[in-house]
Design brief:
By secondary structure, this protein is mostly beta strands. The protein is built from one helix and four strands, in the order βββαβ. It starts with 7 loop residues before the first strand and ends in an 11-residue tail after the last strand.
C-alpha cells in the first residue's frame, strides 16, 4: 500500500486524455458528477498505464490556494 502526505484524496474516472508533444491533459469525472482535470508528462502517463475509462485515485496537494471575490 502506497502512503501519501496529501490528505485530499478522491476517486474518479478518466473521461478523456488529450495528448500533446510532451504533456497531456486528463479530464476526470467524480462520483458526485463534478469534474476535475490533471496535467502530466506523457512519460508519466505511459508509466502509470492510465487509459480512458480507468478508475483512478486523485491525490491533491495544493501549494497555493487562491481566492477571488466576484462582483
Amino acid at each position: 500500500m502506497m502512503k501519501y502526505g496529501a490528505r485530499n484524496q478522491l476517486k474518479g474516472t478518466v473521461k478523456e486524455i488529450q495528448r500533446g508533444t510532451v504533456m497531456c491533459h486528463i479530464k476526470l469525472s467524480l462520483p458526485s458528477g463534478e469534474s476535475m482535470s490533471s496535467v502530466m508528462t506523457l512519460e508519466s502517463l505511459d508509466d502509470l498505464g492510465i487509459r480512458e475509462g480507468d478508475s483512478v485515485k486523485i491525490v491533491v496537494k495544493a501549494v497555493n490556494v487562491l481566492l477571488a471575490k466576484e462582483g
